[in-house]
Amino acid sequence: MSITQYEQTHLAGVLALCEAEEWPTFPADPARAHAVLTAPGVTAVVALDGDLVTGFAYLQSDGHIQAHLSLMAVHRSYRRQGIGRQLLEYAVPLTGAQRVDLVTDTAQDFYASFDHRTNSGFRIYPG
To answer: pTM for the complete prediction?
Structure first.
């Protein structure tokens, strides 16, 4: 298992993970997904088992103080092996940020295993 920065050759694997999670946004437009994963201020990393993308994390950051974990997924058959933690431990220093905010509705126990503070938050949808 290795963790590395995202490259376009990883796109199909990232899209497959999104589809497995029923997250339609990236698979709906692969070119846009690649543009997002390589945009300024974005850190995107993947976990690889050989050529198989077994996980990915996508963070946005100002490069100094604040980062946001926007998406992270690990292939179902690779979960509970420390891959999610490895993805974050690799990616967060690359953001340059001092802290990372995130929203989750499925992995509270996982994120609570990190040094953290819990705050109330909102996700606002325009229009």
So the answer is: 0.87
